[in-house]
Amino acid sequence: MKQKTEMMRVTPEERELIEHIRNYNKSFPDGYPELLWYAQQLFDNMVKQPY
Q1: Which of 22, 16, 17 is nearest to 3 (CA)?
Q2: Residue 51: is it exposed, middle or buried by C-beta count within 10 angstroms (0-12/13-18/19+)?
Q3: 49, 41 contact by CB (below 8 A)
Q4: DSSP per-residue letters across 1-51
Q5: Which of 15, 16, 28, 46 has its C-alpha lying 20 to 30 A from 9's C-alpha?
Q6: Whole-model pTM over 0.85
Q7: Is the per-residue pLDDT at 51 higher than 70?
């Protein structure tokens, strides 16, 4: 099944997050926990949270 793709402008941080998620998914199920951890850290840094 071929997935539909579309173009979108993203920031360098968003691109890095997407690339790390893809790398983690490629490594699953043998996976590298560090890839998931790093992707989660990138996401947490990007989300604006009231403190």
Answers
A1: 22
A2: exposed
A3: no
A4: -PPP-------HHHHHHHHHHHHHHHHTTT--HHHHHHHHHHHHHHS----
A5: 28
A6: no
A7: no
